[in-house]
Amino acid sequence: MMSAEWARRLVVLGAAGLGLAGAAYAYRHHASAARALPERKQELRQEEEEAVPTEKDVQDFEKACEFVSSTTLVSAGVFGPPDLLELYGLYKQATEGDLNASSSAGWAASAWGWIKSASSLSPREEAKRRSWLRCRGMSRGRAMTMYVGKVLARCAQRELDFKLDGEPEEAEAGWVATSTLRDAYHDEEDGEDGPEEETSDWFNAVADDAVTADAIAALASRATAAAAAGETTPSTPTTTLASASASGSPSFPPIEEVTERDGKLRSCLHWAADNGNADLVRALLLNRADPNSRDEDGQTPLHYAAICEYREIYDMLVGAGADENAEDGQGETPASWVPEHWRGGSQKQFIGWNS
Amino acid sequence: MEDKREIEALLEQMHLKEKEEAMQKKHSFWESQPVKQFSEEQNSETVEEGPVQVNQDAKGVRETGYALPGGYEWCDCDISSAEGAEEVYTLLSENYVEDDDNMFRFNYSSHFLSWALQPPGFKPFWHVGVRVIKSKKLVAFISAIPAKIRVGKNSPKGKDGVSMVEINFLCVHKKLRTKRLAPVLIREITRRVNLFDIWQASYTAGVIIPTPLATCRYFHRSLNPKKLIEVGFSKLGKRMTLSRTIKLHKLPQKTSTPGLRRMSKEDAPQVLELLNAYLAQFDLACLFQSVDEVEHWFLPRENVIYTYVVDAGEGKDGKRKITDIMSFYSLPSTIIGNEHHKELRAAFSYYNIANTASLKSLMEDALICARDENFDVFNALDIMQNAEFMKDLKFGIGDGHLQYYLYNWKVKKALTPQQVGLVLL
């Protein structure tokens, strides 16, 4: 890693002494190191001689320009006058192409004409024009890469930290440290990976809140259909349910799995309540999931809904017969967890099979 | 448990690796500055403690500001005016530090800024801004405030405190990050501080630059786990329920320390004494200079600073006796791209001194007070004695480090977090 970086620096450093051609080489070398172009592609690229600048070329060029404009003003001495002159010519060539045709034709026509037109300019402007003229015939893309190469080479020489692909200077974004919680919330006894569970795929999907809307709708309609048929228990899955489950969600549960529990005695209804999944809670209740089932701590789904402050689910469970005064192992009731701002007007309505 | 230790070790390695990488990187700016260099870390015994550059004369400091890129100019920001504070607030709130995933951005309030930047002895000259000449838009900022800091309680040069500044709120507009303004800002604030014959500074950063004086870690105590999960500040482990998480983090209804109340102006002289007595044990600490200073930094301000004291009642001299102090400041973050939540309200532990109460119960009361003030999370560094209560009070380890730095001052050996008794805002 390090040695490759140094090799690149050395190449770039050597190239810096070779003027424009060296600069272009330095840039290409940088480009191939940074982008790891396949060799064949790179050959093609060299053949085309960057006639049409790629988006990346333009980006690099803009970065290099900004760097030059800020560096010259901030810490003098990085780019001397000859450098700047050369860069100026390349810049004009890259952004505007050949020096204005009519005037340059005039210049070419006679030495006298050139001297005459130049004499009206300050020596500084004259030198700038000459630098631009020197790039005549160069494609814009090539001028851009030459420019970037020149900047890179000079920076390598001066051991300046200018990188095209690099991140901004570490101080630029400010100094304050940010931090968020590193570890997921977990039970001490289980560790971060959670307890070992041997529950069904369906149950796992409910616990992970990964049941599709289709499967929930199918679960709900199965119960409604069963109720309409006057059966005391809903029937086994119908074909429509099977098709709902075929679309990637876990296979539809036979009715006994609505009563499945995990290692901590939590039911599907506990998990649906904890996840705040009101639709699934409704569908499970329609399938006669027990709203008063208890986990190992004696808590009901209603405890969960109260603690998590899911009002819709809380009301739904109460409507389905959940006991607001069921004490858990520590003697706490769902009602005791109800937040202050819920009091006054809890709607205990539930429209389902028992209403 | 063994796994856990392995993970801890791995993370420490990761941080070491981060440091190693930082040490191999070229820091062209910092290598030109009077700070301890990475190369000096290896043979730190030869490092001489104290200022890097000595016998400096304020008369020799350049009188004009450093050159800026064309189109920009220096300015003093007037934090004392509502518009001035608002302007800095806007720059910071839109461009200040974001976390690695760009979910949160610090959102210091303008009230907070006018508190943090105007302690006794502050200078508008040290509230340095960069403006676009044409539009006058503020595009960069850096600040210094005066402070007396002890460096090394056994260091002959540093033990009685060094008059220095605390550098903070360095911020460059997002669109100007390639202009390398930060080094110019640092040079300029250094110049402006040097003009007042002050030659040292302390500052903190999340990044590693040459060379940290101490590397500390953030810890977070969840007060509102449901919201913290919803905004992505934390997450539920596999097969962990939200209800259980909420139950685990539920705090008692009321504080337990008898005599705990908000600090008032009359308490300031006693708070000053308690602070300086307590902070004497740390190698890096603020030496509070006056009652005024204590009043400024500690008197409660809504949504800025919250300070509580334990009032032991009237003593024999008829004066109320203050025995313990507990304090935290408010530093919310903007939540980026969340429909339901706009702001994460975070309380940050400030200075806590437990003389009659246990530190653990005093800090539990801090959590309760912060919850009652509607904070979502309580953050603390592992500095001072903070590591003592973190496990019992259910703080979780953070993924961020905070590095402490000194400018123009070297120490032989880096400090442990427990040796640090300084909180920078």
Automatic annotation (TrEMBL), chain A:
Compositional bias segments (type: Polar residues): 346-355
One term of GO molecular function: fatty-acyl-CoA binding
One family name in Pfam for this protein: ACBP
Composition-biased stretches (Low complexity): 228-250
SUPFAM superfamilies hit by this protein: Acyl-CoA binding protein (SSF47027), Ankyrin repeat (SSF48403)
The UniProt record lists the keyword Repeat: yes
Region described as Disordered: 228-259, 323-355
Gene3D superfamilies: 1.20.80.10, Ankyrin repeat-containing domain
Name of the protein in question: Acyl-CoA-binding domain-containing protein
Taxon lineage: Eukaryota, Viridiplantae, Chlorophyta, Chloropicophyceae, Chloropicales
UniProtKB/TrEMBL annotation, chain B:
InterPro entries: Acyl_CoA_acyltransferase (IPR016181), NMT (IPR000903), NMT_C (IPR022677), NMT_CS (IPR022678), NMT_N (IPR022676)
Keywords annotated in UniProt: Acyltransferase, Transferase
The enzyme's E.C. designation: 2.3.1.97
Gene Ontology cellular component terms for the protein in this record: cytoplasm
Stretches with biased composition (Polar residues): 31-41
One Pfam family this sequence matches: NMT_C
Glycylpeptide N-tetradecanoyltransferase C-terminal domain segment(s): 230-421
Keyword Transmembrane helix set for record: no
Record domain Glycylpeptide N-tetradecanoyltransferase N-terminal: where: 52-216
A Gene Ontology molecular function term of the record: glycylpeptide N-tetradecanoyltransferase activity
Matching Gene3D superfamilies: 3.40.630.170
Top-level enzyme category: transferase
UniProt-annotated stretches for the region Disordered: 31-51
Catalytic activity: N-terminal glycyl-[protein] + tetradecanoyl-CoA = N-tetradecanoylglycyl-[protein] + CoA + H(+)
Family membership noted in the UniProt record: Belongs to the NMT family.
Purpose of the protein: Adds a myristoyl group to the N-terminal glycine residue of certain cellular proteins.
Protein name per UniProt: Glycylpeptide N-tetradecanoyltransferase
Organism: Chloropicon roscoffensis
